[in-house]
Amino acid sequence: MIEDSYRHRGMRRALVRTLAEKGIRNQQVLHAIQNVPRHVFFDQAFLEHAYQDKAFPIGEGQTISQPYTVAVQSELLDIKPGDRVLEIGTGSGYQCCILLELGAKVYTIEYVKSLHQQAKKMLNSMGYQANFIHGDGSRGFNAYAPYDKIIVTAGAPSVPEELIQQLAIPGKLVIPVGGTDRQKMLTIERLSESNITKKEHNYFSFVPLLGEQGWKKK
Ligand code: SAM
Fold first, then answer.
1. Got the DSSP string for 94-156?
2. 1 within a domain of the structure (yes/no)
3. Considering the entire predicted model, what is its pTM?
4. Which of 60, 74, 90 to mutate to test the pocket of ligand 1 (most atoms within 8 A of CB)?
5. 13 C-alpha to ligand 1 centroid (Å)
6. Is residue 161 included in any domain, yes or no?
7. Residue 212 domain flag
8. Do residues 171 and 148 lie in contact, with contact meaning Cβ atoms separated by under 8 Å?
């Protein structure tokens, strides 16, 4: 049974205020962050960390993204209810919950099997419905393409061409690209077969995207 107490909701309100102060303007995104209990992804002993604006280890060398990062990527995606969204890097499943709260139909792919299984179990127990896939998402997931939006939640060395090909027209990809220490957030919009635009945003620090189009494991 997942407990979501008055205290937890109060801690989330404080987090939402922090995110608004840091420049998050999209009210639906702030509302989604207010609605999703983040503490359920944390061990009881680490509850105090759940509503701080920071990333946190979730095992297997991976992290639940910083709430600010989740908010920025969600804001950039500009989700409309009913959008078909591919998330690459399920991790804990927290970002997936935010996308679902925004009304998206979500396909989420995770490379690490234990994380994929854990996230699927957790979201099901929370009453969220998404399509969970285990595998290498660095080449997207063609079987369910096209997607209105694609979000990559791990740092990529470059933009995989197949992700652009799997976008609907119009469609939008939000992806952090750069080195293994920091990456620039990019939005790539596919407006027609030949008209593809690219915008650059701030720097962030993600764990590396692995797999065929990602960083090779050492
Ligand atoms: N969105 C996640 C959340 O809300 O908890 C945070 C994800 S964590 C920063 C990045 C995730 O991407 C990790 O769980 C990692 O295993 C996964 N990942 C890395 N390379 C991947 C790939 N090629 N395909 C799918 N998932 C990948």
1. HHHHHHHHTT-EEEEEESSHHHHHHHHHHHHHHT---EEEES-GGG--GGG--EEEEEE-SBB
2. no
3. 0.97
4. 90
5. 27
6. yes
7. no
8. yes
Indicate if 5 belongs to the active site: no
Q: Which of 25-34, 50-59, 147-156, 157-166 has the lowest mean pLDDT?
A: 50-59
Residue nearest to atom 17 of ligand 1 (CA): 89
Q: Which domain holds residue 73?
A: 6-204
Q: Which residues face 172 on adjacent strands?
A: 149, 189
Q: Is residue 127 part of a domain?
A: yes
Question: The domain spanning residue 115 has which CATH number?
Answer: 3.40.50.150
Residues 84-103: tens digit of each pLDDT: 999 999 999 999 999 999 99
CA of 6 to the centre of ligand 1 (A): 31
pLDDT tens figures, 47-71: 889 999 999 988 888 889 999 999 9
Quote the tokens at residue 176. 């952090």
**pLDDT surpassing 80 at residue 114:** yes
- Tens of pLDDT, residue by residue over 170-208, are 999 999 999 999 999 999 999 999 999 999 999 999 999
Number of structural domains, the chain? 1
